[in-house]
Design a protein that fits this description.
This protein has about 170 residues and is mainly β. Helix content is about 0%, strand content about 45%. A seven-stranded antiparallel beta sheet has the order 2-5-6-10-9-8-7, with no helix packed on it. A four-stranded antiparallel beta sheet has the order 4-3-11-12, with no helix packed on it. A hairpin with a 2-residue loop joins strand 11 and strand 12. The termini are close together.
Length: about 170
Amino acid sequence: MRPPRGVVPEVPGPGQESVWDYPRPPALRADAREVVVVLGGVEVCRTVRGLTVLETSHPPTWYLPAEDWAPGALRPGEGTSFCEWKGTAVYLDVAAGGRVAEAAAWTYPEPSAAFSRLAGHVSVYPARMDLCTVAGEPVRPQEGGFYGGWVTSDVVGPFKGGPGSWGW
């Protein structure tokens, strides 16, 4: 997809990807790097079985197997949302260490056929956790609070979500 007028994609360096090379509709990719999620000072998830959704202009969104979350860390939350590609998401609260991050995670109980591998996986807003890491690198949350992308040093933008990007 071509970037909108006035948007100049960053040039990826060695070992990096540009979000402007990601497809629309998005792609789904398995990623065996270790992912750790911490809330309330407690590790709530550790996995090497993550899936990433890669969509034009967005940093990857990580989906982690529900069975790799600590018992009791995920609780039913309030709300749903709809993605034209993946289907209806159901929100979850994340709880650990005396903290509850309401609607900080989501899952697709019945994803569309193209994203059927997301069933049984959970994504989380990194900004609502104490820490999320990919291969030991702390994740920076995608700007804007609406999207759940995970920004690491191996991906370059500019990313949708920041000021002036809502029309992309």
